[in-house]
Amino acid sequence: MYFTYTHYPFVRPAELDGAAVRHAVAVVGGGPVGLTAALALARFGVRAVVIEPRDCVSHGSRATCISRRSLEVLDRVGPGPAITAKGVWWHSGRTYFRDRQVFALEAPHSNEDRHPPFLNMQQCAFEQFLVDACHANPAVEIRWHSRVAAIAAGKDGVALTVETPAGSYRLDADWVVAADGAHSTVREALGLRFEGTSYEGRYLISDIELDTDTPAERRVWFDPPSNPGSTIIMHCQPDNIWRFDSQLRPDEDDEQELEDDRLKARIRRHLDFIGERGRWSLVWSSLYRAHCLTLPAYRAGRVLFAGDAAHLVPIFGVRGLNSGIEDTLNLGWKLAFVVRGLAPEALLDSYSGERHAATVENHFQATKSTWFMTPPGPGFTLMRDAVLSLATAEPRVRGLINPRQTSPFVYAGSELNTADGAAAGLALGEVLPNLRVDVRRNGKAADGHLLELAGDGFLGLQFAPAGDEAVDALGMEAARAPVPVTLVRVGDGAQRGAAIAVRDGEIAGRLGARAGELMLFRPDDHLCARLVAPTGPALRRAVLRALGRAPATG
Asked: What are the contacts of 537-543 at 24+ separation with CB within 8 A?
């Protein structure tokens, strides 16, 4: 449908022939979250085996919108540049009520940004880039044609019963990452249940190949003349494929409306309405319902849940896939450091706490969007239509139509944070902005972005001039840290004795940093410490606390 699919053969594992093999981490599920989790573990030095029942990537666009933050994560784990090169960039959108525009979305962006606010790509193509990256990485093994039939989780490890075309075998792992989707076999086998709300609203989602010069932007129509009583969303994707989502009215039957003739008639009416005269064809279709569901915790002993296996988020605001991608980097560095003996198992509880809090925030924002997109009753519909009507003439009302697109979650209350008196600027738990910088590596200059400076561990931005004895002491402490700490001096004169330095430019102002301050970022790029008067011992305590190895010191 979108490209020539590769169908992968079954490769007989050693366990089927009686070999005793124990894996550090088994990832159940070879979708986008499971594959990204395996690549994240590999990034931080841990091998992973991925168990996947299919023999190829998924079909259809499904989750189609990738956020800037997800692209940053993908850069860290491998396939980001290839995905960015292929996808369709966009930053603007338009919202219509019937036949009139009532809102214009403009996501913040500039020429300094490494990535666009959003990038569209069919999930099947996205998965293929991830599969290719996994196959090229010696630390990742994908076992196709393999289905988890049972799981036995113990205190010291997990045993999976895996069914294959050549029979069943037992796979032993120290840890399991369950990324096997909304109908997670692992979740069901452990007797865990979702909590939350499912919504009545239903959407027909379709991919159409369309010959058009329409620019790439998000467009939404409420109650369009082409489909009265419905909401329609259109997104551009690579290779002239457009995503077409159409809300079903309560009186419409799922199966009938999915029939090709009826679905094509629905799409044709709307394309005629918006003046699209080019040739088009239906490529793929499915049905979607919105859910705000989550597990109460994402860790069950030595099993950790990520993506749709852990939480379901409505598509409005593009939080579903992107929240799963954010899960993977948070989990990846923590689990890798635990496996490598650099952090205690208790660090994994912070994964559950931080990402569950992110889901609660995503549910809060997505619920508001869901109620606006698919009102749950006549009263909600009346209120929404009143807002839309007023917005045509009253600019102050238009903000209520904002779709509240996804943004990185702030781990403000994380137990891994260290506070040291900073009151303004970048807050604890925020993601480091990927600002363009002039980098000096061992005396050689090059243009780059801040996140490119992060290595396999922590990143310290040290706002201090060269020649300060405290600066040199911090560098020595960073070299002795229990995990990698890349220390970067920030300042026009911060070159002496620095392996990596950046000219200040606007960095201190953008981050709200004081002269002499040190900002410490975790391996997932979140700020975990602001040391206004940094010392070697203070830096060490902050690193240990972020690893779950030291108590809070204020």
From this structure: 537/477, 538/420, 539/460, 539/474, 539/477, 539/478, 539/481, 539/485, 540/477, 540/480, 540/481, 541/418, 542/418, 543/458, 543/481, 543/482, 543/483, 543/485
To 5 degrees, how large is the angle CA 204–CA 207–CA 209? Answer: 145
The answer on 158 and 61 residing in a single domain is yes
Instruction: Please give the residue range of the domain that contains residue 63.
Output: 14-84+120-194+292-349
Q: 25: which 2 tokens? A: 């981490």
Instruction: Provide the Cα torsion 540, 542, 545, 546; round to 10°.
Output: -110
Neighbours of 7 (CB within 10 A): 9
> In 3-state terms, what secondary structure has residue 314?
coil
- Quote the number of domains for the chain: 2
What does 174-236 look like in DSSP terms, one character per residue?
EEEEE---TT-HHHHHTT---EEEEEEEEEEEEEEEE-----S-EEEEES-TTSTT-EEEEEE
The CATH number given to whatever domain includes residue 67 is 3.50.50.60
| CA 353 to chain centroid | 17
C-beta separation of 327 from 349 below 8 A: no
| pLDDT by position in tens, the chain (length 554) | 689 999 999 999 999 999 999 999 999 999 999 999 999 999 999 999 999 999 999 998 899 999 999 999 999 999 999 999 999 999 999 999 999 999 988 888 887 789 999 999 999 999 999 999 999 999 999 999 999 999 999 999 999 999 999 999 999 999 999 999 999 999 999 999 999 998 878 999 999 999 999 999 999 999 999 999 999 999 999 999 999 999 999 899 999 999 999 999 999 999 999 999 999 999 999 999 889 999 999 999 999 999 999 999 987 778 889 999 999 999 999 999 999 999 999 999 999 999 999 999 999 888 877 778 888 788 888 888 898 888 877 877 877 777 667 789 999 999 999 988 777 899 999 999 998 888 877 767 788 899 999 888 999 999 876 555 666 778 888 888 889 999 988 886 555 545 677 776 678 888 999 888 999 999 999 999 999 989 999 999 999 999 999 754 44
Please report, for the domain that includes residue 480, its CATH number: 3.40.30.10
Asked whether residue 299 falls in the same domain as residue 442, the answer is no
Residue 403 domain-assigned (yes or no): no
Place of tokens 């011992």: 537
Question: Cα(430)–Cα(411) distance, rounded to whole angstroms?
Answer: 7
Task: Name the H helices within 226-308.
Answer: 254-258, 260-273
- Would strands 280-294 and 485-490 be described as parallel, antiparallel, or unpaired? unpaired
| Helix spans in 62-214 (H) | 68-77, 80-86, 123-135, 185-189
- Cβ proximity of 538 and 420 under 8 Å: yes
The answer to whether residue 356 is domain-embedded is: no
Residues 6+ apart with CB under 8 A from 455: 484, 486
Domain final position from 330, 349, 368: 349
Sign of CA dihedral 328, 330, 334, 337: positive
SS3 391: helix
Tokens standing for residue 547: 């690893």
- pTM for this entry: 0.94
Are 292 and 3 contacting, i.e. CB atoms less than 8 angstroms apart? no
